[in-house]
Amino acid sequence: xxxxxxxxxxxxxxxxxxxxxxxxxxxxxxxxxxxxxxxxxxxxxxxxxxxxxxxxxxxxxxxxxxxxxxxxxxxxxxxxxxxxxxxxxxxxxxxxxxxxxxxxxxxxxxxxxxxxxxxxxxxxxxxxxxxxxxxxxxxxxxxxxxxxxxxxxxxxxxxxxxxxxxxxxxxxxxxxxxxxxxxxxxxxxxxxxxxxxxxxxxxxxxxxxxxxxxxxxxxxxxxxxxxxxxxxxxxxxxxxxxxxxxxxxxxxxxxxxxxxxxxxxxxxxxxxxxxxxxxxxxxxxxxxxxxxxxxxxxxxxxxxxxxxxxxxxxxxxxxxxxxxxxxxxxxxxxxxxxxxxxxxxxxxxxxxxxxxxxxxxxxxxxxxxxxxxxxxxxxxxxxxxxxxxxxxxxxxxxxxxxxxxxxxxxxxxxxxxxxxxxxxxxxxxxxxxxxxxxxxxxxxxxxxxxxxxxxxxxxxxxxxxxxxxxxxxxxxxxxxxxxxxxxxxxxxxxxxxxxxxxxxxxxxxxxxxxxxxxxxxxxxx
Length: 525
Known about the structure:
single chain; five-stranded antiparallel β-sheet; two-stranded antiparallel ribbon; 59% helix; 8% strand; elongated; membrane; VANGL; transmembrane; cell membrane; VANG1 protein
């Protein structure tokens, strides 16, 4: 009895001592940590930026530890929010400031180009009118009278200028889709051609008409009409160079995403490298499935787990030779490599089984929810118009019954970062408004859609960098390879020229398709 009491007192004393020692150790660690935090700005070249709480996400990584609370979220339609921390260095801050300066430079360059084009266009449209009005203002009394032909030319100039104005607005005054790194060569050549053309007309007008004060007013009006006709021909040339030239397919490009190897093929015409890159990016947002880095991290963690699963123990002591250990490690690695494909096979099979199981639960839950909303609609039709529910309220009413199944499915397929609770409610209310089926509602979540299907905040590719060995203003050629880089992945574009196809004709005689049916006559015995 005394021995038990002594043991208990000893254990309690040890516990008390260990508690004091842990507390003292924690306080000492805090004391050692505090001066480091004070001088952290001088000793480490990094800062930590804490972002404010974002909109609620399904299955946020910060809340994975509270699994029970996540399940309650699925039943009570509440979401777990959290803060995310990102650590960046001073070099990253300098790079961000440089990117901001470059973006300001790009904006200035874009507005400068628009200003030059607008001023030149205004000069083009005012020049024929000035050619007609200046003689009337400067030497009106000396001019010959304008006859019927001259007055008809006024109508011709007015309608031609109107047609030119509409065509210029349709061809040039468009909202820009992207900021290209270099100037568009054909557009710049057209602007230079128009400037030289108008300048030469003004030079001839000043020397032959203004200086001599020509009195033939009908000839002056015909001179203005010739200018408008020439401008219409230049506009036709602009349509050919800017729009029609690139319509005929000449090249086939293969676009490969560097992370997961997803690829697409596109046919392009005669384009420069930068405009071909713009076409590729437009098709990328429409055709490629959204980039999901969570699927790649799963494969990387699996490979790291296989590589880190080897341990070597020295049984005979530290004095022995290490060659035996190295041979044992190589043999163990070879045996593990031989069995790793079995582990991968069973792991993928188990993942597919879980996905199919949770998909079936999700389909059943959504069908039951939509059946309930149909029953609610039947009941609401019997009520007064002021008591009926709008689609938003109906979506909020049936969302809790499917939230938990949808949450688990999105976690299993690693899509939770692309779908917030608000976006799901909006999609659900949209489906209810348009009387869509449960299958139409689930299409967005059962299959990974293109990037344009999701909000811009969920995109991992917003700003791109074009890398090419050739000049980006040069045209496409056979064998050219250029890369489109963003923050998380690259798009590798390989250009191949469409081969020349030679077709031959073979004549078939219509008489060769005639046949004769021969029947063997049988005689009775």
